[in-house]
Amino acid sequence: LAQREDIIKKHYQDLTQLVEKNKHLREKIKQPFEALLTPKIQRLNDIIKPGLTSLTWASLTIDDYINTVTSSLDEFELMLDRANDLITFRIDSVLNEISTMSLCDLPEDEAITPENFLQQTQ
To answer: Are 76 and 44 in contact (CB under 8 A)?
Structure first.
């Protein structure tokens, strides 16, 4: 009985970690990717579903379930990190660079005529 108690406690710990990781990953999804990731999230939900409906503490397949969910969450995390890195390092950095770029130099102390402005910008 004591041996079974240790196994159940380990399963409890593993499942708690999976729930926390799942929650953390879903919080990491950035708004632009929500619609794009819907099929992946649905697949992840389908993988998690047996733990909510058919598995019990006495199930013989609980270890396989934990391994499958862990693997799926790791795969989803890798894809999510790559997507978030794409936004951060490729898109946002270029947009920040564009936003700080000066398109033309205007005098600060005097007005400029439209003709002079056109000549300076050509």
So the answer is: yes
Q: What is the pTM of this model?
A: 0.74
- C-alpha distances (whole Å) from 47 to each of 19, 52, 61, 65, 102 are 13, 10, 14, 9, 51
> Mind listing the pLDDT tens digit for each residue in 4-41?
889 999 999 999 999 999 999 999 998 888 999 999 99
Q: Which of 96, 59, 74, 81 is nearest to 17 (CA)?
A: 74
- Listed by start position, the domains of the chain span 2-99
Task: Provide the residue type at 38 as one letter.
Answer: T
Q: How far is CA 50 from CA 44, 46, 64, 93, in A?
A: 11, 8, 11, 42
Question: Which secondary structure element, helix H or strand E, spans residue 41, and what is its range?
Answer: helix 38-53
Give the three-state DSSP class for 35: coil
